[in-house]
Amino acid sequence: MIKNSSSVREIKILAQHICSMSVFKAQRVIDQIRGRSYEETLMILELMPYRASYTILKLVYSAAANASHNMGLNEADSFISEAKVNRSTMGKKLRPRARGRSYTIKRPACHITIVLKEKSKMNLI
């Protein structure tokens, strides 16, 4: 979704049903990048040792590419104004056990939302 008003230009990107991680694993990465500039975010995500950082890095790249292609925003002048993680549906499988019993295996998933905004000259003064 692209929002374009007279003073604020922002782009919002949403990745749904990310099956490789739980909310808590993604949240510790998202907390580190919230409110940072685009270049600083890329450096942080490339150096973090967590598996969730690669998925979030691809999402930030996609948001910046959409912002530059659709709205003509400069990637160097943008920052992450909002980043949040929400819980998604839980994938469930049955694992066979002894004596004909079964246990469930729960696979968590999450929704990740990232909003990129352009740094305006009025906010910097």
TrEMBL record:
Family: Belongs to the universal ribosomal protein uL22 family.
InterPro entries the UniProt entry points to: Ribosomal_uL22 (IPR001063), Ribosomal_uL22_bac/chlpt-type (IPR005727), Ribosomal_uL22_bac/org-type (IPR047867), Ribosomal_uL22_CS (IPR018260), Ribosomal_uL22_sf (IPR036394)
UniProt protein name: Large ribosomal subunit protein uL22c
Biological function: The globular domain of the protein is located near the polypeptide exit tunnel on the outside of the subunit, while an extended beta-hairpin is found that lines the wall of the exit tunnel in the center of the 70S ribosome.
Subunit structure: Part of the 50S ribosomal subunit.
PANTHER family assigned: CHLOROPLAST 50S RIBOSOMAL PROTEIN L22-RELATED, LARGE RIBOSOMAL SUBUNIT PROTEIN UL22M
A molecular-function term among this protein's GO annotations: rRNA binding
Cross-referenced Pfam families: Ribosomal_L22 (PF00237)
Compartments, record wording: Plastid, Chloroplast
NCBIfam families the UniProt entry points to: rplV_bact
Entries under Gene3D superfamilies matching the protein: Ribosomal protein L22/L17
GO cellular component, one term: large ribosomal subunit
One BP term from GO: translation
Organism for this UniProt entry: Commelina communis (Asiatic dayflower)
Keywords annotated in UniProt: Chloroplast, Plastid, Ribonucleoprotein, Ribosomal protein, RNA-binding, rRNA-binding
Domain of life, per lineage: Eukaryota
